[in-house]
């Protein structure tokens, strides 16, 4: 499995930890930056970089970390084909995959502990889309153009 990961300065420390966690699970991780916590950067730049890799099929899933996880989700969802969710519990991560076929998960580097985010990400990557009654609903989202 290939996963693209990115963060802004507020998510940098956790991005590094989460990247190591994914690699230790044998997951092929591409890090799009940012590469330090010292410089203030704009989260949409990293959201778009991860979203582009998921939309093109280059990565199966994306993981994004910012202060809250919220801005990253808003930005990533601007990219066609991306269904990004901001998640703080493993149960919601599971449901976002099973029911919504979400392909990007965004987490908070400032307000949620790293151990909790690891569980969120493991639940997200470990849950398949259920399809069935959910498939047509996701298809409606995918077809929507503004
Ligand atoms: C950066 O200060 C912060 O606004 C950003 O990391 C994020 O929380 C935005 O949603």
Question: Layout of helices and strands, plus pairs?
Answer:
Layout: E1 2-7, H1 12-24, E2 28-31, H2 43-56, E3 61-66, H3 70-76, E4 84-86, H4 90-98, E5 104-108, H5 114-125, H6 133-143
Parallel strand pairs: 1-2, 1-3, 3-5, 4-5
The structure holds D-ribose.
Textual characterization of the structure:
With 146 residues, this protein is an alpha/beta fold. It is built from 6 helices and 5 strands; from the N terminus they run E-H-E-H-E-H-E-H-E-H-H. It has helices at 12-24, 43-56, 70-76, 90-98, 114-125, 133-143; strands at residues 2-7, 28-31, 61-66, 84-86, 104-108. Strands 2-1-3-5-4 form a 5-stranded parallel beta sheet, with helices on both faces. Strand 1 (2-7), helix 1 (12-24) and strand 2 form a beta-alpha-beta unit. It is globular and about 45 Å long. The model has no long low-confidence stretch (mean pLDDT 98). Bound molecules: D-ribose. Residues 8, 10, 43, 66-68, 70-71 line the site of D-ribose.
Major sheet: 5 strands, parallel
Low-confidence stretches: none
Order of helices and strands: EHEHEHEHEHH
Query: End-to-end distance, in Å?
Result: 32 Å
Number of discrete helical segments? 6
β content, as a range? 15-25%
The chain-level mean pLDDT equals 98
Query: How many beta strands in the DSSP annotation?
Result: 5
What would you report as the Rg, rounded to the nearest angstrom? 14 Å
Percent range of helical residues: 40-55%
Morphology: globular
Task: Give the spatial strand order of the biggest sheet.
Answer: 2-1-3-5-4
Structural class: alpha/beta
Bound molecules: D-ribose
């Amino acid at each position: 499995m290939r996963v693209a990961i990115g963060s802004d300065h507020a998510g940098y420390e956790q991005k590094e930890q989460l990247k190591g966690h994914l690699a230790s699970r044998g997951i092929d991780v591409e890090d799009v930056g940012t590469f330090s916590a010292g410089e203030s950067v704009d989260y949409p730049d990293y959201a778009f970089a991860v979203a582009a890799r998921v939309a093109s099929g280059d990565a199966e899933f994306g993981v994004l970390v910012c202060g809250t996880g919220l801005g990253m989700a808003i930005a990533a969802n601007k990219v066609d084909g991306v269904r990004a969710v901001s998640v703080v519990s493993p149960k919601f991560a599971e449901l976002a995959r099973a029911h919504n076929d979400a392909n990007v998960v965004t987490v908070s580097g400032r307000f949620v502990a790293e151990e909790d985010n690891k569980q969120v990400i493991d639940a997200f990557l470990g849950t398949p889309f259920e399809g069935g009654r959910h498939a047509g609903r996701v298809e409606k989202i995918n077809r929507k153009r503004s």
